[in-house]
Design goal:
This protein has eight helices and six strands; from the N terminus they run E-E-E-H-E-E-H-H-E-H-H-H-H-H. It has 295 residues and is α+β, with helices and mostly antiparallel strands. The radius of gyration is 36 Å and the shape is elongated.
Length: 295
C-alpha cells in the first residue's frame, strides 16, 4: 500500500543514566531531505540519527528533534576549570595591587564566577554508549511515523482509485464516440456540398467524398492515444498497490496521461469528445494534486 509523505512519530527510552526523546515530523518534498536538531554537545550523534531515518524514509522533508537529558538520579560529573580559576585569582591580585583593594577572593566569590564549575553532560564515552540506544529510539519513532504515513496512504489510494475509475469511464465514452466522428463528418460534408451545388446532388459514395472522409479519418484517428491511456491506467492502478515508494512514478504517469488527453483533444473533430477531454484533464489535475502527497 502506498504511503503519504506527511506524518509524525515519537519515541522515548532510558539508557546509561540518560533520557532519550525523539520527535519526527515529515511533510511533502520532491526528494528526501532530513534536518536533525540535536543539542550541540551531542552533535557527534547527528549522523546516527540521519542514517537511522534514511533506512526507511525515501521521500519527503523530515525534521528530527532529539533531546538527551540526564535522569534525576543519575550521577553528574562536576569539573573545575583550573586554568580559569588561576586567571581569576591573578586578576584579583592585580586589582588589589593597583587599586588598593583589601578584600580577598573567597571560595563563595569564586564559585559564582562564570564557567569556573562545569557539569560534564556529554563526553566521547557517553556519546559512544548512547549511539546504539539512540539509533533504536529513532527506529521506533520512524516506525510510528511510517504507521501514520501508511494510514494516510490508504485514504490517498482509495481516493486515487476512485478518480481513476472516473477517468476510465471518460476513456470508454471517448472510445465509443470516436467511430461516430467520421460518419458525422461525412454527413456534414455531403450536406454542405449539396448546399453549394443545388442543381446537382452529390451521391454519398462519390469518390471525392470518400477521399475527403478518408483524410479526416486518418487525421482524427485517436486509437493509439486511447490504447496508451489504457496502458497508463493499468500501470497507475498497479502502482497504487505497491509497497515501494511510487510518488515519482505516479507523477510521470500523470504527465503522460495529460499528454495523451491533449493529443486526443487536438485530433478529434468532435464537440462531444472535446467535452470529455476537458472533464478528463480536470480530473487529472485533481489526481496530480493528490499524487503530490505520495512518497
Amino acid at each position: 500500500m502506498i504511503r503519504s509523505m506527511t506524518g509524525f512519530g515519537r519515541a522515548e527510552r532510558s539508557a546509561y543514566g540518560y533520557k532519550l526523546h525523539v520527535d519526527l515530523k515529515s511533510v511533502n518534498h520532491r526528494y528526501c531531505e532530513i534536518s536533525v536538531r540535536i543539542p550541540r554537545e551531542w552533535a557527534v550523534l547527528e549522523d546516527t540519527v540521519r542514517r537511522a531515518v534514511q533506512r526507511t524514509v525515501k521521500r519527503g522533508r523530515l525534521d528530527a528533534y532529539v533531546v538527551i537529558e540526564r535522569e534525576t538520579d543519575a550521577p553528574v560529573t562536576v569539573e573545575v576549570n583550573w586554568a580559569l580559576v588561576e586567571a581569576y585569582r591573578q586578576a584579583a591580585v592585580q586589582l588589589q595591587s593597583k587599586l588598593g583593594f583589601t578584600d580577598s577572593l573567597s571560595l563563595r566569590d569564586m564559585l559564582q564566577l562564570p564557567d569556573v564549575i562545569a557539569f560534564r553532560e556529554a563526553d566521547a564515552d557517553a556519546a559512544a554508549l548512547l549511539e546504539q540506544p539512540l539509533e533504536e529510539c529513532v527506529a521506533e519513532a520512524v516506525s510510528n511515523l511510517v504507521a501514520m504515513r501508511e494510514a494516510e496512504g490508504m485514504h490517498l489510494a482509495r481516493d486515487l482509485a476512485e478518480r481513476l475509475n472516473l477517468l476510465e469511464r471518460l476513456h470508454e465514452q471517448i472510445r465509443s464516440a470516436a467511430p461516430l466522428v467520421v460518419e458525422e463528418y461525412r454527413s456534414r460534408l455531403l450536406q454542405r456540398l449539396n448546399e453549394l451545388i443545388r442543381d446537382q446532388a452529390i451521391a454519398p459514395d462519390d469518390p471525392r467524398i470518400a477521399m475527403e472522409v478518408a483524410l479526416l479519418a486518418d487525421r482524427s484517428n485517436i486509437e493509439e492515444e486511447l490504447t496508451r491511456l489504457s496502458s497508463h491506467f493499468a500501470q497507475f492502478r498497479k502502482l497504487l498497490e505497491s509497497d515501494e515508494p511510487v510518488g515519482r512514478k505516479l507523477d510521470f504517469l500523470i504527465q503522460e496521461m495529460n499528454r495523451e488527453a491533449n493529443t486526443i483533444g487536438s485530433k478529434a473533430n468532435s464537440a462531444n469528445i472535446a467535452s470529455r477531454v476537458v472533464d478528463m484533464k480536470a480530473e487529472l489535475e485533481k489526481v496530480r494534486e493528490q499524487a503530490q502527497n505520495v512518497e
